[in-house]
């Protein structure tokens, strides 16, 4: 940080001196102030060499601070994920550090690093695996061997893998929450093609299919010294560092070399119009575009200048016209994207009011055509080049940034002097080159249009722009827990008999079906290693009404569901419930064991014998499409229930198990007064029932929605 501060301070002082020197000339306008040319940008050059085993090493001394940073790139990447195990590479990158090493557990590694104020991180991008280390120079000799073990001998601990899979499932469950995230994700999938590895999405099923052995096999296949680049920058002596590197990695055996990922994607640019409905938003998100270019393209630098003119900042055409003059966009951007290993994406996008969606699409199309038909004038060209070069200096104002970028260019096979020539290449771009690039790489007749938003509020239908394909972004549900059960006549006959037996045991031969419940209970929530006490009062009334209150240390929450509507109230604030939240509450009611047992003869409830597990007889039940499994003990009581549900706090899907105990009388029924919930084997809450009423007379005013937001 000190080097950044000093470099920026030096620039500020230099600028101040230049302004001061211009003062005696008594200029009348700031436009008349003349500045000297920017000094030549000196880029420090690392020493580059290879170990005998093929590991490529980059060393750059920097003695300004007593710190050392280490960077690693491994020739692998998540694009190598098997289709049925999408997400495997990401878990390798995460667990390589979190799971610890063969000699040190993940928790022990955390403690080891914390004492030394050091850090070790690992990860996986689409094109490479990464690792990094930050440490005080005085602690380097202790920490570097541990870093080498993280890279070479990861443990991939089973318990850490299970936690990581839960975290990934949480991400999957929330991937459609943000309209901007949906738009960017799905637009890129359209451009590259849904069959490309670049377009794969992790799903509950692909994460569930990943095992510890898969992570170990991935590491064995790709993590070899001849697939690895190591960079070190900081306060060290180069000769001594070479010895330390040889000691840590010299005996690492070569493996099969991996090539730069060569990923298939759609090369043909075909126009199309696509729509994704997102009805819980007030904005429309729009993207237009097609394939872009690669970084090694000779026209790359001219494209960078075009991008700055077109959509690079406050003075760009898109910003000044679409946002400022026409007032159509909250945000707007655009340019020819360039990637290292494949073509990037040319895209233009904005977010706007729903009622100006179509108007905004036309405004973007106009600007796309204008950048082709009306090349930038000299003023635009000059401003764009200055903006790029001024920001370029601050992108590489520390030795660590320079080293990291040099390693990146080397990884992708760019010339060693690419960074050094960047400035002169930008300066030499002409207006004619920018005009040629616009005509060559921007194709208005091949644009893909994607609109995301609430169609009822649009000024015109998306179909105004051509035939529309609607994209379904629904998340595939997790596989059901337990082996599949065939709903054959014989299975259902035996299942109904088992459910009737449970009803006879628990209901005391009461023949009236259960239609409503009221429960008051003490709840213990297990969150972040802490137990949080709460009290809950809940009323269910079939077929579709729920009233629940929960008192927590931080306040009281109330939830009301009445049919397809509902709201939540907390802290004096009310909020309408979304469709998914309402569905979750109704599913919870329809899985209630007393409703299942107490409606064993209901035609909406199907039951099938699902075999035996230990001492339990298992019944698979389906009540109005809500499924679970009931485990009957030797006395015919429901002692356990399992289903594929959601974590009550993170909302991530998982395997839920409810265990029931402390069976006591309640309104003539034998019911469990102790419930314990686990998700994916981790206990998340327990319930102690204080009182329970079966088929009470329920005041329907509880479910009134007149106060809902």
Your description of this structure?
It is a single chain. With 709 residues, the protein is of the alpha+beta class. The protein has 19 helices and 26 strands. The radius of gyration is 32 Å and the shape is globular. Residues 1-24 have low confidence and may be disordered. It has four domains: 2-32; 47-190 and 202-249, Metalloenzyme, LuxS/M16 peptidase-like (Cytochrome Bc1 Complex, Chain A, domain 1); 272-399 and 417-470, Metalloenzyme, LuxS/M16 peptidase-like (Cytochrome Bc1 Complex, Chain A, domain 1, 2-Layer Sandwich), CATH 3.30.830.10; 489-703, Lipoprotein localisation LolA/LolB/LppX (outer membrane lipoprotein receptor (LolB), chain A). Helix content is 34%, strand content 29%. Strands 19-18-17-16-15-14-26-25-24-23-22-21-20 form a 13-stranded antiparallel β-sheet. It has a seven-stranded mixed β-sheet with strand order 9-10-11-8-12-7-13, sandwiched between helices. The two termini are 49 Å apart.
